[in-house]
Amino acid sequence: MTAERRAAEFDAADPLAGYRERFTLPEGVIYLDGNSLGALPKTTPEVLRCVVKKEWGEGLIRSWNSAGWFEAAGRVGAKIAPLVGAAPQEVIACDSTSVNLFKLIAAALQMCPGRKVILSESGNFPTDLYMIAGLEAQGLATRRLAERERLIDALDSDVALLLLTHVHYKTGAMHDMAALTRAAHEAGALVLWDLSHSTGAVPVDLNGASVDFAVGCGYKYLCGGPGAPAFAFVAERHHPSLSQPLTGWFGHAAPFAFSDDYAPAPGIEQLLCGTSPVLGLAALEVGVDLIAEIGVGRLHQKSQALSEFFLQSLDAQGAVLECVSPPDSGARGSQLSFRHPEAYAICQALIARGVIGDFRDPDVLRLGFAPAYLSFADIAAAAGHLAAVLASGEWQRPAFSQRTTVT
Ligand SMILES: Cc1ncc(COP(=O)(O)O)c(C=O)c1O
Ligand SMILES: Nc1c(O)cccc1C(=O)C[C@H](N)C(=O)O
């Protein structure tokens, strides 16, 4: 049976097939980059129009109270919570992932007096490593990096915090969250997970694993739009001792008391710093509602089926490409990454054919399979295009190797 025929059968049996209609996707494009910037939910423009025209245009400052702007960060956080195995009062939507990393790394250092080492994985997403380096430059932390396989050996009595990205941005490899959290706790350290490539794509059980802290992006699988607010999780048991350094007025226990002295809000609101980005939160809320409606369990199931079908389709066409993602779909996130010395040119050749994936320096072609809006027909077609690009050598056209894009 051809890949197209099999795809048609899979699509007919796919319980999530109808959700594709809930997103805006351009004609002629197969979008395999939802792991970097999620697609636009169809209702987002109308929701934003209403927030801008009615809430801002007519409600003006009154909308902080009457339109729920004050509560938006906590409300959206509470909706993200079940997607990551947290309680509603443990998650807040705010700032960027990078800023949330800074706040929580610093908070962890405060909670572990006498320990300064932040342990992470070499090759982790750069911002995670840079935020540790920034605190190191302030004399507050010592960065320690270990290879993935040596992380547990690198845990000792100097380590305050183990900071890891659950699903690796480049390879899609997924850590065993429960095992690593347990090992860190046994060494007396706290744990902070970056869930940017996990949330809305793979099941996460923060409280099941007794995780201390977590952060994640709003613009990837949560479809909150470019620059969407990120989120932060702090386990409720740590709320009484939480102390983060960006002590802005929105994190104050009583912001409108306008006191000279800072007093942190008692709960997760302490993580707020400045005024919440109302428009960004409104767009993020649409994406989160939609992903929550579909359900992470069903999304994960479909994501595994999509990536397995992609590999089978590629194989059936005789295409040979080194896959650097774990072969077991249960051990990876919602992406497949392939190594090739000319990955940049191959990626550009695919984009010219309408298949949008991305390239990660120096040699990785990364294809994301956002299950909420991709069909099996998309997957069969994308595999066909990739096989054709490789077989024809069209990636060798000079235009495809000129580094004109940065993403
Ligand atoms: C694992 C990971 N963490 C953090 C970020 C960056 O987050 P932000 O741009 O919100 O600071 C990204 C992607 O940009 C990422 O892939
Ligand atoms: N945040 C991004 C941006 O502002 C522009 C381009 C790409 C991004 C990304 O999200 C990159 C992404 N985190 C990655 O996994 O590579």
From TrEMBL:
Its EC number is 3.7.1.3. Catalyzes the cleavage of L-kynurenine (L-Kyn) and L-3-hydroxykynurenine (L-3OHKyn) into anthranilic acid (AA) and 3-hydroxyanthranilic acid (3-OHAA), respectively. Its cofactor is pyridoxal 5'-phosphate. InterPro entries: Kynureninase, PyrdxlP-dep_Trfase, PyrdxlP-dep_Trfase_major, PyrdxlP-dep_Trfase_small. HAMAP family: Kynureninase. It catalyses: 3-hydroxy-L-kynurenine + H2O = 3-hydroxyanthranilate + L-alanine + H(+); L-kynurenine + H2O = anthranilate + L-alanine + H(+). The lineage of its organism: Bacteria, Pseudomonadati, Pseudomonadota, Alphaproteobacteria, Sphingomonadales. Keywords: Hydrolase, Pyridine nucleotide biosynthesis, Pyridoxal phosphate. GO terms for cellular component: cytoplasm. GO terms for molecular function: kynureninase activity; pyridoxal phosphate binding. Pyridoxal 5'-phosphate binds at residues 97-98, 125-128, 165, 194, 197, 219, 249, 275. Homodimer. The gene is kynU. NCBIfam families: kynureninase (TIGR01814). GO terms for biological process: anthranilate metabolic process; L-kynurenine catabolic process; L-tryptophan catabolic process to kynurenine; NAD+ biosynthetic process; quinolinate biosynthetic process. It is an enzyme of class 3 (hydrolase). Belongs to the kynureninase family. This is Kynureninase. The keyword DNA repair does not apply.
